[in-house]
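Notebook, student rotation project (T.W.).
Task set for the rotation: take a protein with a known small-molecule partner, predict the structure of the complex, and write up what can be learned from the model alone. Partner molecule chosen: zinc ion. Sequence and SMILES entered below by T.W., checked by me.
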Amino acid sequence: MNCLECNKALDYLDHKNSMDNVGVELCGQHFVRMKKLVEQHGTPIEAIQLYYGLKDAGVNAMLEWWDGKKSVDIAISRVKLNIEIDTKYHMLTHEQAINDLEEAMHSFKNGFTTIRIPHVLIKHYLKETVHNILGIMEGLRANIKVI
Ligand SMILES: [Zn+2]
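Predicted structure of the complex:
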């Protein structure tokens, strides 16, 4: 077990602490940094797991990216893709739904595409989720070229 950021070997306690709190393997130093980010933004564990899943697939993403109005869970700026992780998917209210739609509209106006991914998908289908995001990136890249 090694840190996903610096590849430092983790002992049992570091590993357990990191997995329990942020859902990925991080050394003491990187865990503290991630924990701070989570506390600041309320980042869902699944966003962190997806971020490292994308990193593992060679995607340069940003966690908690500030788009000028709000913090986006994950942003892939090269193809202008924003990814929001839905943690309250099953209890979506109409107020939340209209807010989401408005946010998506603002993103589109800025040339960004927003996709929302239910957190359970990352929990059960991380590989497939990453695979599909890679496909979406390909499509976006092709569209950018056309323009
Ligand atoms: Zn580390």
